[in-house]
Specification:
Layout lengths: L3 E7 L7 H8 L8 E7 L4 H10 L4 E5 L5 H14 L4 E5 L11 H5 L2 E3 L6 H10 L28 H6 L3 E2 L2 E3 L15 E3 L2 H13 L4 E4 L8 H14 L6 E6 L6 H7 L7 E8 L3 H6 L6 H14 L3 E8 L6 H14 L3 E6 L18 E2 L7 E3 L5 H17 L6 H8 L3 H16 L7 H15 L4 H14 L7 H12 L6 H7 L1
Parallel strand pairs: 1-2, 1-3, 3-4, 4-5, 6-9, 9-10, 10-11, 11-12, 12-13
Antiparallel strand pairs: 7-8, 14-15
């Protein structure tokens, strides 16, 4: 039986923890006594405890994140009730700051805030050797990235076959966006590129074809970016490869554009954080962003490459009212990214965003994931409307299932029109989740014809294209509805559609 268990609760099975694998890679002589166990937040804490105790460990280390803090805390509470002698070590972003008030910290034996790549193994070593640890809080010593072992060989064959493979060519971020934990970094620290690419070669040889880079600023150092992209372009001569990178939106020099253009369809995704186009709000959150360059770069990527664009906006930033957010949303829609991720501001522990709480009346949920509930410009009820807006947007626009009918629905006022749809969907269904796809098609037909007064034949034509592309069988409900309405009430003019599009 292992003496040490490395454990975390992932949001979903497909998410393989890179952090745990870093810890395991750096266990040294303790690696043979260690085992990595991953669960999901959907499993019952008591069942997780049972599986952990089956291993009869002396030490369990937990990685705690915003998505698993509640469930992990319950697991720790149960463990300390039924097996109090097991030493519990916690680490991860959620317990790196403001840990004193957290139940997980109070129940655990030790806490390692910050980067625990080496500190976790050292703490385990001392516990097993009965060396006294004077403090519950174990502050990790600074280290160079050259000092740690890389984790990629510890992705199993099952991981490679079924899960997302996360990789990183660098750590840190030079920017100071106050809603992000990376704002606390001082600079970017790159891994040795020769060693890193050697590890990528090994993953490729084992069958990995999808690589998700978690670097916060992949295109900060263009020469490194190009070398990494050239490496994967060569691999595409053998097989298809899919890459995900997070880009700085206003930094796209010509030589990076040239290599982006060489990637074939379905091989490249860019996550691009816009967050807001309001300069005053950008200033409030210490975000430096050239909006003109950002818009030009997104437009170039969309028009001159095959890259899939996943762009981010945040609701609830200090100083941004609903009109300002609508302007950012409409501006981004005009640039036509493939996805717009509408996020709700979260108060991550330790982030400087808290400095605005008093001046802007920022009120956050005390429960994970600590979403903003209201501020001086957006009251609670409106914030709830915007939460539903974000959920329905994911369900409809970001799903990719309504490519033909989306623009017809959004018209020239995307935010206003989709907020109207969102309100109507809630009133009609009382649901924000688990709406069956055939029913969603029928609901959209009803909204577009009854609420937005669009021409039924045009709506039906566009929805039918999406219905067939989605692989749904049989006669769609919205089509039968359309036939009944057309027989009973001809004469709706296309001017209604024209009014919607204005």
């Amino acid at each position: 039986m292992p003496h040490i268990i490395l454990c975390t609760l992932n949001a979903r099975y497909i998410h393989a923890s890179l952090g745990l694998r870093y810890l395991y890679a750096n266990m040294g002589e303790l690696q043979d006594q260690s085992r990595l166990l991953e669960f999901t937040i959907n499993q019952r804490p008591i069942d997780i405890v049972e599986k952990l105790l089956d291993e009869q460990p002396e030490i369990i280390g937990f990685g705690i994140y915003i998505w698993n803090t509640q469930q992990t805390t319950e697991v720790i509470q149960l463990l300390k009730t039924v097996a109090p002698d097991i030493k519990i070590i916690i680490g991860g972003p959620e317990v790196t700051y403001e840990y004193e008030s957290q139940t997980a910290f109070q129940m655990a034996d030790y806490c390692i805030p910050g980067t625990g790549d080496l500190a976790f193994a050292d703490t385990c070593r001392k516990i097993l050797n009965k060396q006294p640890l004077l403090n519950k809080l174990i502050q990790p010593q600074p280290f160079s990235l050259h000092d740690i072992q890389l984790p990629y060989e510890y992705y199993t064959d099952e991981d490679i076959a079924n899960r997302i493979i996360y990789v990183e060519a660098s750590r840190g971020c030079p920017f100071k966006c106050e809603f992000c934990l990376s704002s606390l970094d001082k600079t970017v620290y790159p891994f040795d590129l020769d060693i890193f690419l050697g590890e990528m070669q090994k993953l490729f040889d084992r069958g990995v074809r999808s690589f998700k880079f978690i670097d916060r600023t992949f295109n900060l150092k263009i020469d490194s970016s190009i070398r990494i992209m050239e490496f994967f372009l060569q691999k595409m001569q053998q097989d298809k490869v899919y890459l995900h990178f997070e880009l700085i939106p206003d930094h796209l020099p010509e030589k990076l554009r040239e290599i982006i253009q060489r990637f074939p369809p379905h091989s490249l995704q860019f996550e691009i954080g816009i967050q807001t186009f309001n300069p005053d709000v950008q200033n409030n959150i210490s975000r430096k962003q050239n909006n003109d360059k950002t818009k030009a770069n997104l437009q170039w990527i969309r028009q001159h490459s095959h890259a899939h664009i996943h762009a981010d906006l945040i609701i609830g930033l200090p100083g941004e009212d609903i009109t300002s957010f609508a302007h950012s949303f409409d501006s981004l829609c005009q640039l036509d990214p493939h996805e717009i991720q509408v996020g709700i501001l979260k108060r991550l522990k330790g982030t400087p965003i808290i400095r605005h709480s008093k001046d802007y009346g920022m009120h956050y949920s005390p429960l994970a994931p600590f979403n903003i509930l209201s501020n001086e410009l957006i009251d609670f009820k409106t914030m709830q409307r915007l939460n539903r807006f974000a959920r329905y947007w994911d369900m409809i626009a970001n799903s990719g299932r309504f490519k033909h009918s989306k623009n017809l629905l959004l018209g020239k006022q995307p935010f206003e029109n989709f907020l109207t749809l969102s309100d109507w969907l809630l009133k009609t269904t009382g649901q924000t989740h688990k709406i069956a796809l055939p029913r969603l098609f029928q609901l959209l037909y009803q909204a577009m014809t009854d609420v937005f007064k669009l021409e039924p034949q045009i709506v039906e034509r566009q929805l039918l294209k999406d219905y067939q592309a989605a692989g749904l069988k049989g006669q769609p409900d919205f089509k039968r509805t359309g036939e009944v309405q057309e027989k009973s009430g001809r004469g709706r003019s296309e001017s209604r559609q024209q009014r919607h599009m204005q």
